Amino acid sequence: MNGDKAPVTRAFFIASVLFTVFFGIRRGGGSSSKLGLSYQDIFEKFGIWKLIIWNFSFSSTLELFFGLYLLYYFRVFERLFGSNKRSVFILFSGIVSLILETILLSLFKDPTNLVASGPYAFIFASFVSFYLDIPILKRFHLFGVHFSDKSSIYLAGVLLLLSSWQRSIIPAICGIIAGSLYRLNIFGIRKAKFPELIASFFSRLSSPSLNSHSQAPSPNLGPQAVRSPVPSSSIEPSMAAIGAMVLMGFDQNEARQVLVDIRNDVNAAKYSKHIRMLID
């Protein structure tokens, strides 16, 4: 994930790996019951440290595999919307999911009814944007069944959803609800931003060399590098088209400019000389 302009997702990814190794998988088969969140953990013996471990640590190798795969893919949203908004999204989805899970646990009050540990809220909240914002670029058939280039992500999500049955289904559903509320812009959350000082902290934390790369001179692209202002009559690219370009490796500004240049033709972007120069 180095150099992909997603420092917040990178930090979250690394934290999940470290917490899972030291507090999850390393403890063996009984770790899932120790890491899971229960009614007692919230209302009787509440501890901040337990809450932090629960939020980042997967309880099995299978969950870790699919969880990291999805975390890595969903970095596309940080590249699309920016690190600041992604940080707000992570905090919002985590808080809303925790509130919903607390309500469910308080209704049952069963010490054996645990909520699976791991960043389920963040992952499944991201599926809302994945479904609505990421376009299908390719469709194909296999044994008479329709698939698309998004099918592997959905499959990984289903496997993670069912990895611990009820324990994992509860936080997954709460995460989807949190992602839907964010999408509906409840309390104007989509316009909220952290102070730049906090946002830049995550960038330095996850990639100390990021600043040196960002200050490096941009490559000389020749005469094409000098652009005339985009006419006001140009059609603004859709979010779906920009999302498709981001999947190809561009950041949001590059994607928008390329789409304006090629009149929003995403297919032509795959073969455009302009794109090849930007990639190089």
TrEMBL record:
Cross-referenced PANTHER family: RHOMBOID-RELATED PROTEIN, UBA DOMAIN-CONTAINING PROTEIN
Native organism: Eruca vesicaria subsp. sativa (Garden rocket)
UniProt entry tagged with the keyword Hydrolase: no
Organism lineage string: Eukaryota, Viridiplantae, Streptophyta, Embryophyta, Tracheophyta
Membrane topology: Multi-pass membrane protein
Name assigned to this protein: Peptidase S54 rhomboid domain-containing protein
Subcellular location per the Swiss-Prot or TrEMBL entry: Membrane
InterPro entries registered for this protein in UniProt: Rhomboid-like_sf (IPR035952), UBA-like_sf (IPR009060)
CDD domains listed in its UniProt record: UBA (cd14270)
